[in-house]
Amino acid sequence: MKETSLLPFLILLLPLLGTLINGLFLPVLLNGFDKIKAPLAGTIATTVVTSSFLLSLLSFFMLRDHSELISNSFHWISIQNFTLDFELRIDRLNSILLLVITGIGSLIHLYSIGYMAHDKGVARYFAYLNLFVFFMILLVLGASLPIMFFGWEGVGLCSYLLIGFWYQDHEKNLAGEKAFIINRIGDLGLLIGMFLIFAQTGTLNFNEINIAILTQSQDQHLITIACLLLLAGAVGKSAQIPLHTWLPDAMVGPTPVSALIHAATMVTAGVYMIVRLHPLFLFSPVAMNIIAWGGALTAIMAATVAIAQNDIKKVLAYSTISQLGFMFLACGVAAFDAAIFHLVTHAFFKALLFLGAGSVIHALSGEQDMTKMGNLKRYIPHTFALMLIGSFALSGLPLFAGFFSKDKILFEVINQTSSSRFLFFVAILTAFLTAIYTARLIVMTFYGKEKITLENKNKPHESPWIMLIPLYLLAIGATFGGFFEHTLELWLHPRVTASDFLTKNITEVTLMFVSSLVAIGGLMSGVILFKNKSVRLPYFLQNILLQKYYFDEVYSAIFLTPYRFLSEKICHLSEIHFFEENNQRIVSFFNQSGDFFRKIQNGDIKFYMLIYVLGSAAIIITFLLFII
After folding, report:
1. pLDDT for 178-195, tens place per residue?
2. Is 442 in contact with 360 (CB distance < 8 Å)?
3. Under a CB-based contact definition with an 8 Å cutoff, are residues 515 and 431 in contact?
4. 180, 159 Cβ separation under 8 angstroms
5. Whole-model pTM?
6. For 48-65, what is each residue's pLDDT tens digit?
7. Rg of the chain over CA atoms, in angstroms?
8. CA 288, 294, 296, 302 torsion: positive or negative?
């Protein structure tokens, strides 16, 4: 049963209110951004997002009695026979996403009060952060593709603003521009795909699209093309091969921004869209295969690159790309529940790891290079313990959240036809590599020889409690979140009974044992390899991984270098053959134009009245000619 409610609009508008207060009202009231301190701006921003979380929790409980909560406010688009309402909808799928976005988002806002305490642009930062949450909520609440697309573009804008937040640094500006441009490539595909879907189904409403796919005859080739175009948008937003190169560079922004992008917002949008339109994608086996293989290849590629990175945030960035590959793999084998389950558990442990990395960076006054760390568990024991929990969850150690969600994906992959055996092998190998690079991060950061020169730096110090409290809350989710697997599946599929879960397939039990060995073996291998440094990768392989398989270099050679060459040539030729040869003519033209207009503006009232009468007459004559 559907229920009309104001809750979707209230959940959406609260973060926007925070943006208006921090970005407009307070700067006007206090005469500038520099006068606004972190406690004030952060409290306002955290309060509005937390309020959205509480309302999201209320809507979650209301869905036990209603199938959907709908806010239908006004007609948004009306073209001939086509009408589209600005409709927001909360159902069982996006209610889970809402809790992740607002719940983890509120913890990241709280953490930011401590992390950004000494930044002069803190009010602008929190205004952008609230705006990011607003657009992500709009993305998941939109009942149609155009509304989703509006939020989709909004999170792209906010990522540009936040990645390049410290705009005085040219490197950070370039990273923001790179994220913005690469996402536009994928978004163009998404936009064209929307037009094709409308041409085929006659609607852009999610429910109506899915019903049309299930009940009407469709052109499979056209649907496949539309799915691949939508997939291009998902690949760009969720940083999958080949549009993944923006995400590691995005690490130059503030660390809480990295946590928000990777855990609760932007990069999960592609997975959500595929799950939301899963009947459409299921109609195209070609698209499903591409999703599965693309996800698997992205997962293993990013896992191998993560092993060689020395920047603590870039290790986690490639880890996110790899884990998103797992989610795409799950979608590609039609395990949509498994993809959402891993999205939720990943949000907990990846936010924990990113904010933990921020605590490390805070302790070392901005240092991010793990080769310059070591033995930090002595100085920041709380951060060490919490990051250890996040690492166990990421590695898939038994009883931690990541173990259950990865195991579910592996089980769904191996349950497919024989053609998926290679995909299963890739997934298992990726899980093993994940445990290795996670162990490497912990060993290089918290163990080994102390590399910080204390006389040249402030002594490493533990983060304040306003930063540690969100870490402890996230650690609870990273530890116990996996135990809600069956609850989540029952929530998404109410007709399935709890008794259906009591009978364990022998394959699943065996797989749980195998994945446990993989996680434990990977962690132990990582500790042995990197604690004693007994094994080094061959130079050529190390160089390939450090250069991230040369994706950026190839793109630069194919696209950027020819573009710059042509631009410079065109500008040079224009300057020589046009401006230099016609310089006097151009100057003369503007001088003569100026003389003409000076004669018109002569200050003679009678002349002005004549021009007014002649102009009015010309307008009246033109109007009469059109009527006749």
Report:
1. 999 999 999 999 999 999
2. no
3. yes
4. yes
5. 0.88
6. 999 999 999 999 999 988
7. 28
8. negative
* Most confident residue range from 251-265, 268-282, 495-509: 268-282
Residue 142's alpha-carbon distances to 69, 71, 226, 446, 532, in angstroms, are 12, 10, 20, 44, 52
Both structure tokens of 199: 């041409």
pLDDT score at 456 = 45
CA–CA dist 512, 501 (Å, integer) = 15
pLDDT in tens, 588-608: 777 878 777 777 777 777 777
Q: How many CB atoms lie within 10 A of CB 306?
A: 26
Per-residue exposure over 114-151, b if at least 16 CB sit within 10 Å of its own CB, e if not: bbbbeeebbbbbbbbbbbbbbbbbbbbbbbbbbbbbbb
> Across the beta sheet with 2-4, what order do the strands follow?
2-4, 68-79, 82-90
- Closest to 156 measured CA to CA, from 180, 133, 130, 120: 180
Peptide bond just before 470 cis, omega within 30 deg: no
Of the candidates 126, 104, 99, the one whose C-alpha atom is nearest the C-alpha of residue 115 is 126
pLDDT at position 495 is: 56
What is the 3 state secondary structure string of 506-537? HHHHHHHHHHHHHHHHHHHHHHHHHHCCCCCC
Task: Tell me how many helices (H) and strands (E) the chain has.
Answer: 27, 3
Structure letter (DSSP) for residue 142:
B
Of 202-211, 524-533, 552-561, 605-614, which range is least confident?
605-614
d(CA 405, CA 412): 11
CB atoms within 10 A of CB 93: 18
- Helix or strand or coil: residue 311? strand
Helix (H) or strand (E) holding 381: helix 381-395
Q: Is the pLDDT of residue 296 over 80?
A: yes
